[in-house]
Amino acid sequence: MTHQDDATPTPPDRQPSVRAVAMPADTNPTGDIFGGWLMSQMDLAAGTAAARRAGGRTATVFVDSMSFLRPVHVGDEVSIFTDITHVGRTSLRINVEAWRQTRFEETSQKVTEGMFTFVALDEHGQPRPLDPKADDQT
C-alpha cells in the first residue's frame, strides 16, 4: 500500500462506518492517542462492514500494512471509512482509513490506514461460504 495521504486531501465523500471522539483515557504515556485504541476503532468499523456483507457473524483473521501517518490528539473527532476490496469464498479484505478533525477546524487529515481480512463464520464458529451475488458496497 502506498502512502497517498497528501494526494487525498479530503476524506471519502460518504458517511463513516464509525465516528468517535478521542478522550484522555485513550492516551499513551506521551499524551497522544494510543495506537491500539485507534486500531480497535478501525477493527470495529471493518467488522461492521464485514458482517453486513457476509450477512452474519465474522471474525478478524489478519491485519496487514498498518500505517500510522499522524498522531491523534485528545478531543479530535476520528472518522473511520471502509472499502471492501476483495471477496473470496469465505473471506473479505477491507481497506480502512482513519481521519481526524479537531473541534476547532473544518479540515481533516488522514491519520491511519490499514488492510483487514475477515472470515465469515457459521453458527459453530467455522468458516462458511459468502454469497457471491451479495452487494459488495459498505
Helix content: 10-25%
Beta-strand portion reads 35-45%
Major sheet, described briefly?
5 strands, antiparallel
Q: Compute the number of helices.
A: 1
Rg of Cα set: 16 Å
The overall strand count is 5
Task: Walk me through what this model shows.
The protein is elongated. The longest helix has 20 residues, at 35-54. Helices cover 14% and strands 36% of the residues. Mean pLDDT is 90; it is low at 1-7. The chain is built from one helix and five strands. By secondary structure, it is an alpha+beta fold. The chain has a five-stranded antiparallel β-sheet, covered by helices on one side.
What's the arrangement of secondary structure elements?
Elements: E1 18-21, H1 35-54, E2 58-68, E3 77-87, E4 91-101, E5 109-120
How is this structure best summarized?
It is built from 1 helix and 5 strands; from the N terminus they run βαββββ.
List keywords for this structure.
alpha+beta, single chain, 138 residues
